[in-house]
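Practice problem. Given the sequence and the SMILES for zinc ion, write out the predicted structure.
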Amino acid sequence: MLSMTLSTDERITNAHRAKLAYVYVRQSSPGQVRHHQESTELQYRLVERATLFGWPRERVHVIDDDLGKSGASSRDRHGFQTLIAEVGLGKAGLVLSLDASRLARNNRDWHQLLELCSLFGVLIADGERIYDPAAYHDRLLLGLSGIMSEAELHQIKIRLHQGERQKAARGELRLPLPAGLIHNRDGSVTFNPDEEVQERLRLVFAKFRELRSAKAVMRYLRGSNLPLPMRPLLGPAPHDVVWRVADSARVVQILKNPAYAGAYVYGRRRPDPLRRQPGSERIGTVAVAPEDWSICLKDAHPAYVDWDEFMANRRQLVDNVNRYDTGRPGVPRKGPALLQGIVNCGRCARRMCLRYSGPNGDYPVYVCVADNSAEGRPKCQEVRALAVDAEVERLILEALTPDQIALAVAALGEIEAENRTMERQWTLKRERARYDAERARRQYDAVEPENRLVARSLERVWEERLRRVDQIEHEYNAWRREQAVTISESDRQEILGLGADLPRLWNATTTTSADRKQIIRLVIKEVTLDQKRRRGYVWFRIAWQTGSTSDHWLQRTVQSYAQHADQDRLRQRIIELNGQQKMDGEIAYILNTEAFHTAHGPAFSGGMIHQLRKRWQIATVKINGKEANPPRWPDGTYSVQGAAAAIGITPQIIFDWLRRGRLSGKQLAKGMPWQIRLTPEQAIELRAKVRRTNRSKGEAS
Ligand SMILES: [Zn+2]
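Answer key:
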């Protein structure tokens, strides 16, 4: 009797029965799964119901892998998503669930399912009746029951949350405690009896008082090999205290926790959907400022720091962050850092960020974000930005010369011609598929309706052909999307004109560095930097927007000659030139013409060569080699010793007179022997003067 009424429901047609029936079984929590076994059995009974509707048992599929997952969102509920997919593929004729709206408690999911079912002509059934989502009244009914179901869930949530809040307001809600505190058996809160835990936490607060920086505290703890006590809230309570290596985040966590200031706080974080990570079970949250904490009961239990110090610490932490972010105030930032945001680290593939260094913060530096300083380890790499920027700029302007652009436009023309050939191929293919489908339809139409067996198989052929049409259209559209955009003749001229204008535009005073950055992003996808591949060089790879890449080397300007790529060659050359009795100034001039680079950028000077010789202990080569200085040089000038003997005084007095200008002489370079000009008359005069002075001194004494 029952089966009669069911199978004669006029909404179920053979078209529905030709497809599959899906039974969707779901309980929303593991508890429900355990305690409502009978309900699960009831849901399995739906399978029977499907057979009564006329589906053979083997064509009824049960989807039950969502058991124990809440229906509030379809994320992570593979069963529900499978159901959606099956409906979308046109495989389903009927979807059964115990309580239709249980299919999804989230309205969006529910409406997506209704929409799909009505599109694909799928019926929905529960324990009581059948709905046709394509029919207006049924749709209304289903929509309403979905809304009711969601509203019910919302009410439950609100009631739970309100209960929790009221309990918290009385300070009775047991909140998780950090490692330094524990719950007594009576529910009150006290210090963790583990003295090591207590002492370590007191040390953190004391050190912060002294150092005023979480990072500095972290470095101190690491340096002294002192781990921090933590209480990770994983798994069921009680949560044990574990010891973890200190890092900045953990230090901050301790400093910012109001529980250590003796306060009972509820609502330190609030949910923020924007923070939610895709694929993560955790809801995204954002920290709430202390003045907005919904419940904050001070002096609720023993404290490690008093409230005022706690608040002062928080302010200090905020200040530290601000100072780091804004840099030293009043410092102008000159470096434009063109590649900001598109630089990757060639060593660890992370995105690099921008930092300013130098005495005035003028020099932009690309820094790898694998900044291990939070754990006290060295940084991955830092690359000075200006030289790299300049080189990239040069390469871009080179790539965008009118010749290069003309070549590119010509290549585009060739691609277009090939596209036209391919387009013709696609047209033929699409026509053929449509024709095949049309023919299958005609064959189906031609068969007598009584000849069901033949009609059914022809129908299947027809459907298959239609699907093939869809597939080819789909492939064709995908191909179209992949093709480069075709450009018109006027576009072509404009592009060529732009190429001619670019260097002028680029260097115009009205062009801001933001404009330049924008141009760079149009041409370049990203740049990868690595300066540790070869000493003294930065390697970089440009990924152009066209999809091609190019590799480049750039000699670095380095901090010291120890990092200088050419230092061995440079030293060798200085020794050589010095050996040829070249003066420091001359050596500098020669090195500059030989395209040697200094470590810091500017050209070599005599003074720099003198410094380098001192550092590398390259002694001045004397005019007379290793011999002692002769009294007179071949050009008739005196040496210091020669002049001293000629006048009858000590060499020290000669040096003194040279310094004071009483004698004139020259030195080819610092450290070289003096060549003193002294005429015989001058020598006689000076000698007489010295003798007079000595005599008067003698008489006086
Ligand atoms: Zn890195």
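Check your answer against the key. The pocket of zinc ion is lined by residues 345, 347-348, 350, 368, 370, 380-381 (CB under 6 Å).
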